[in-house]
């Protein structure tokens, strides 16, 4: 499956946020990349601000442009607040749920675990990172994969209480997707209304 494989620190510096997780390089050089990044004072247009917000959401969740557009159109067809529904659908992706459960340290690592068939949904192996987890479904680690060092290291000391829409069972190394998260519970710094305005132009 196609995915972004370029320099992550460069992308994080563009937005001034550690969107891929903790980044020591970003802490040292918290200004845009490029030869004149530290001196650039150019005013960003309204369209540029909206576009940057969409790109930030895409990179944060590891979704390609066409996938993101399809997810937005699906959210727009659903009754409710389009921006919130979009974020809820992104949070429902299997790779994101694996990340939120603490099974993997990053979304990229979670996507790799899913693609390598280490993850189950309701007891059945699912190898599609974009799979949409539904309320009530159980996401867990495949029996023969529970001793993997990367999974044990990620779970060690992870606070499973910080996401109220997920319920973790340590004994079975699985979590229940209770419901789609409320916007206030989603910790990502994304202004989803700007994305809606961008696609509405």
Describe this structure in words.
- With 201 residues, the chain is α+β, with helices and mostly antiparallel strands.
- The chain folds into two domains: 8-89 and 189-200, Ribosomal Protein S4 Delta 41, Chain A, domain 1, CATH 1.10.1050; 93-179, RNA-binding S4 domain (Structural Genomics Hypothetical 15.5 Kd Protein In mrcA-pckA Intergenic Region, Chain A, Roll).
- It has nine helices and five strands.
- The chain has helices spanning 8-15, 24-28, 46-61, 65-77, 82-91, 94-100, 107-115, 149-155, 192-200; strands spanning 119-121, 124-125, 138-141, 166-169, 174-177.
- The protein has a five-stranded antiparallel β-sheet, covered by helices on one side.
- It starts with 7 loop residues before the first helix and ends with a helix.
Write the layout of secondary structure elements.
Elements: H1 8-15, H2 24-28, H3 46-61, H4 65-77, H5 82-91, H6 94-100, H7 107-115, E1 119-121, E2 124-125, E3 138-141, H8 149-155, E4 166-169, E5 174-177, H9 192-200
Antiparallel strand pairs: 1-2, 1-3, 3-5, 4-5
Helix pairs in contact: 3-9, 4-5, 5-9, 6-7
């Amino acid at each position: 499956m196609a995915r972004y494989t370029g320099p992550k620190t460069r992308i994080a510096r563009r937005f001034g946020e550690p969107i891929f997780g903790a980044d020591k390089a970003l802490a040292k050089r918290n200004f845009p990349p490029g030869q004149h990044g530290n001196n650039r004072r150019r005013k960003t247009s309204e369209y540029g601000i909206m576009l940057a917000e969409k790109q930030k959401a895409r990179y944060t969740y590891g979704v390609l442009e066409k996938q993101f557009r399809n997810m937005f159109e699906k959210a727009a067809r659903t009754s409710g607040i389009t921006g919130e529904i979009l974020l809820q659908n992104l949070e429902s992706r299997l790779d994101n749920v694996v990340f939120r459960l603490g099974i993997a340290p990053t979304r990229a690592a979670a996507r790799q675990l899913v693609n390598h068939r280490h993850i189950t949904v309701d007891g059945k192996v699912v190898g599609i990172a974009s799979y949409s987890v539904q309320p009530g479904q159980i996401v867990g680690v495949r029996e023969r994969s529970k001793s993997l060092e990367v999974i044990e290291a990620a779970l060690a000391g992870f606070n499973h209480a910080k996401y109220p829409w997920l319920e973790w069972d340590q004994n079975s190394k699985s979590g229940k997707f209770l419901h789609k998260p409320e916007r206030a519970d989603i910790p990502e710094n994304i202004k989803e209304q700007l994305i809606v305005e961008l696609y509405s132009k």
